[in-house]
Task: structure prediction
Amino acid sequence: MKIIRVKNYKELSRKAANIISAQVILKPDSVLGLATGSTPEGTYAQLIEWYKKGDIDFSQVKTVNLDEYRGLTKDNPQSYNYFMRKHFFDHVNIKQENINLPDGMAIDPDVECFRYDNVIKEIGEFDLQLLGCGHNGHIGFNEPSNFFAKGTHLVDLSDSTIQANKRFFKTIDDVPRQAYSIGIQTIMLARRILIIISGKDKAQAVKNSFFGPVTPKVPASILQLHRDVVIIADEDALSLCKK
Result:
């Protein structure tokens, strides 16, 4: 586990984009596991900037997103499908057929989970998985639990996650109560994991996840057991950890 300490969010975003761009340059047909949320926005913006300068080519890249809210259409501004198009996909030369997300409008959750796991199986091992970290240590939408989920599953979102995401919706009642998420096993099978964390409000999550015991009560703690994890965190996020 390698921890890269940065001064601020801008530096975090640039360093994360550096790692992702290097992966794609070295292996143009890379499989990237992608995350949503406010933290990776700067990383995607930097990758778009370098793409427009001709420094990076996404034409052979395949992507698999971590999660999606249940009950939101692809065109809903709060869906993760919409987020990815707005903040990344629509601005680079990635092929539509190489983009993969769970279907939030699937009628049968079991069928959708089975479908998405098959998509992942067909694509093969992720070369790099980008992650954020929730206040309660969740990765993807893998919430604190009594066990580590293996494959894609439907999650009942915790109160803390609902509270954290309410800022994106008109009212808290509009926040979906369920979401699809790939499992911990799928994440752990990635060749390399890059996790980016910013802000003092994430400091306790960082301490619990990377300096505490490995437990499904703190899902991100499992990353301590991965062979190649890079954590990029700013000073605020690392404020409870010794230098």
Summary: The chain has a mean pLDDT of 95.
